[in-house]
Inverse folding.
């Protein structure tokens, strides 16, 4: 969370409604997107721009993370019976790396096979094996991958990406727009099939000159959305209504950046608080947040791929010929 978000989070308590005045429970929307983040915060990489680099989780944290993820997965599975008519998309956004843990792979496989789950995706550094994806329904499972040039060689990351293409997995590849990543990003863009989208996130706190921005825009045709934070206070945002953030205890918030609680997933109390409401924060600078701002056109830009960050023009595998 940036400083503006932290300052605005206090406003959010009011936006969520005063205790005791909660309206009657609503049903779920026809399509619900859940952004799930459990207690896991360990990662096998050591990116200098990440507060979770090389962190180790204690065994009890890993056990708690596994139990929490399994509970969440059960809840999603049970919606087929308890909320028929609601389709669900899930994006796992762990603080660290989830796919090196068996329970995230198991959850991806299970959720992908449920008829009422439209999409299940996870943010990953792609350090782990990928063969398990063959067990997923690949019309539903997808990956949001990030290439960290300081942590993995070009060849090793590209080999994983090529294997995803061979398996028919839908995925995006991202790079953090640090100046010393530019050549590596260009090389990766040239090596990936044209049909694989490479996105660029503006580096935290970095102001880009027009020339610098043009260089990144040449790699990611949608970089201009990331270059500057989006002023968001008072604007309609789908979070809190058809998009919800869920933590390992089932606490529901509208998004990962607004701290005000909306209730709990598992006791159903969140159903009394969800509904359309404006963003309470000054700005939104993270793609997993502002993609849901109704004032932007990103649901059109990413139609069919909002969760895994694949724009409409990049579509499904086969992605075209693999460069030699
Ligand atoms: S791969 Fe992601 S979670 Fe791991 S250290 Fe790098 S930025 Fe952090
Ligand atoms: S624009 Fe939406 S996602 Fe971003 S901080 Fe505001 S409410 Fe959250």
């Amino acid at each position: 969370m940036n400083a503006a978000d932290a300052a605005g989070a206090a406003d959010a308590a009011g936006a969520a409604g005063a205790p005791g005045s909660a309206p009657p429970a609503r049903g779920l929307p026809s399509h619900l997107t859940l952004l799930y983040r459990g207690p896991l915060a360990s990662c096998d990489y050591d990116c200098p721009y990440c507060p979770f680099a090389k962190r180790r989780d204690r065994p009890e944290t890993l056990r708690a993370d596994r139990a929490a993820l399994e509970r969440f997965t059960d809840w999603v599975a049970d919606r087929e019976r308890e909320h028929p008519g609601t389709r669900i998309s899930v994006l796992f956004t762990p603080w660290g790396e989830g796919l090196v843990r068996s329970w995230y792979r198991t959850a991806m496989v299970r959720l992908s096979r449920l008829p009422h789950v439209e999409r299940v995706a996870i943010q990953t550094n792609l350090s782990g094996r990928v063969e398990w994806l063959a067990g997923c329904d690949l019309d539903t499972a997808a990956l949001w991958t990030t290439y960290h040039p300081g942590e993995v060689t070009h060849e090793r990351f590209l080999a994983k990406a090529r294997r995803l293409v061979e398996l028919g997995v839908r995925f995006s590849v991202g790079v953090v727009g640090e100046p010393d990543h530019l050549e590596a990003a260009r090389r990766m863009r040239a090596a990936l099939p044209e049909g694989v989208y490479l996105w660029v996130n503006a580096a935290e706190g970095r102001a880009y000159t027009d020339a610098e921005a043009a260089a990144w825009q040449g790699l990611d045709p949608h970089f201009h959305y990331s270059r500057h934070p989006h002023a968001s206070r008072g604007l309609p945002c789908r979070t809190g209504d058809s998009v919800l953030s869920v933590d390992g205890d089932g606490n529901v918030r509208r998004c990962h950046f607004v701290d005000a609680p909306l209730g709990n997933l598992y006791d159903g109390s969140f159903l009394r608080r969800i509904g359309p409401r404006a963003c309470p924060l000054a700005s939104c600078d993270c793609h997993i947040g502002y993609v849901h701002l109704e004032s932007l056109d990103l649901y059109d830009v990413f139609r069919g791929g909002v969760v895994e960050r694949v724009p409409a023009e990049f579509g499904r595998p086969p992605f075209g010929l693999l460069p030699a």
Notes: The mean pLDDT is 91. Residues 43, 45, 47, 50, 52-53, 96-97, 125, 148 surround iron/sulfur cluster (ligand 1) (CB under 6 Å). Residues 3-18+36-311 form a domain with the TIM Barrel fold (CATH 3.20.20).
